[in-house]
Amino acid sequence: AARTYARAGGAFLMQLFRNTVLICAFVAAAVITVVQFLRRGAAPSVSAGSTEALKDRPGHKAKHWVVKAIAFVVVVALGGFLFAASGIMPIKASSGHWPITAWLLNFTMRRSVITHSLGMNAPKLDDAALVAKGATHYEFGCRPCHGGPHLPQPVIAGHMTPHPPHLPPEIPKWQPEELFYIVKHGVKFTGMPAWPAQKRDDEVWAVVAFLLKIPKLTAQEYLKVARSLKAPAATIDDLTESKQAPRIITDNCARCHIVDNHARDLSVFPILAGQRTEYLFASLLAFARGERHSGIMQPLAASLTAKDMREIAQYYGNLRGPSPAPVSVEIAPAIERGREIALRGIPSRRVPACSACHGPNRVRRNPIYPELAGQHSEYLALQLELFNKQSRGGTPYAHIMHRVAGRLTPQQMRDVTAYYGSLNSAAEPAAR
Question: What are phi and psi of 240, to 5 degrees?
Fold first, then answer.
C-alpha cells in the first residue's frame, strides 16, 4: 500500500513539474515575441532627427502605450489559457472556496440581482392560496438543497461548493423583486437552476410568496402547509365507494390534488376528479413535452411514463366530482352574466358559446376539451389570463383559446368562470 501511494505521489509531482515547465516555456516565448514586435515597431528606417520629430508628434506616445497595453493583455490571456489547460487549478468541491473568492462571488451576485430587478413591482403576495402553491413546489423542488425550518442543512447539499444557503435566515436580506429574479433566472455556477417555464411568472411569484413566510414558520407549520395531504372528513357514501389510490397518485399528485374526489380547499389547485380521462392524459403529455408551460408540473410529468399518465388520468377521471361551494348573494349577478356568455357567447365580440366545447350539455364533444363544471372559478380565470397572454400552452387545441380569451374583458372572464364554478360537476351530464 505504501509503495502504491508513493507511486501515485511521484506521478502527480512529475505531472505538476511537466505542466509548470510547459507554462513557463510558452510564457517566455510569448514575452520574447511581444518584445521583438515592440522593438521592430519602435525602430523605423528613418534618420535620427526624423525619429525625434516623430516622437514629439501629438498622439505618438498614446499610440505607443496602447500597443503595449494590447501586448500585455494578449500575454495575460495566453498565460491564463495555458494555466487552465495545464489542469493545475483544482476544481474539486471538497476544497471549498477561499474566503476572498466566496466574498467576491457573493458580492458580484448580489449587485447583479439588485441591478436587474430594478423597475419590478411585486403583486399582492399575502394570499394564503398563493403561499400554499409556492410551498408545495418548495417541498419537492427547493427543500432538497435549501432545507427548511425542520431541516437546517441537507447532507448532500452541504457538500456542494458553494453551499446552498439555509433560507430562513437569508430571506429577510432580499426584497421580493430580487427573490423573484433569483427564482426565475437562477444563478450561474452555483447549481441554482432557472425556472423551467419562463413564461409563468405567476408560479414564480407563488414561490416568492412562500419564501417571504418561511422565516417565521415553525417546523410543524411548514409541514402543514407544504405537505397538507388530508382531505375533509369522509362520509359513509365516500367510505363505501372509495378505493385504494395507486402509488403513482400518492407519490406524485396527492400533495396538491388529494387522493379522492375531494380537493385542497385552495383555488390554485385544479379539481381533477370527474375530469375527462382523455384530457388529463393529453395535459400530462403536454406538460412533459414542455408544450404546456408550468415550472411546477413539467418536472413531475417529465418523470412519468405513458403508462403512469394513463393510470393517473383513469383514476381521477373515474372519480365523482365534488359538490360546488354555496353561492353567495353578492356574486349571483356575475353568475347570471356568465351564464349568458357560456350558453350564447358574445356575438358582438365574436366570442362563441363556451358550452359548445365545455358543456354543460349533452352534445358529443371532442374528448380532449375539458369539462369546466364545478372547477374553481379563480383557477379558470387564471387560465383565461394565461391564454390571453399566450403563456399557457396546452394540448394541440390550445391555440383556439388564444383567440377567444383575447376577446374577453377581465370582467367577462370573472363572470363566465364564476358561472362554471357554481355548477355541480357530479350532476352535469358529460357527453364523451
Answer: -75, -25
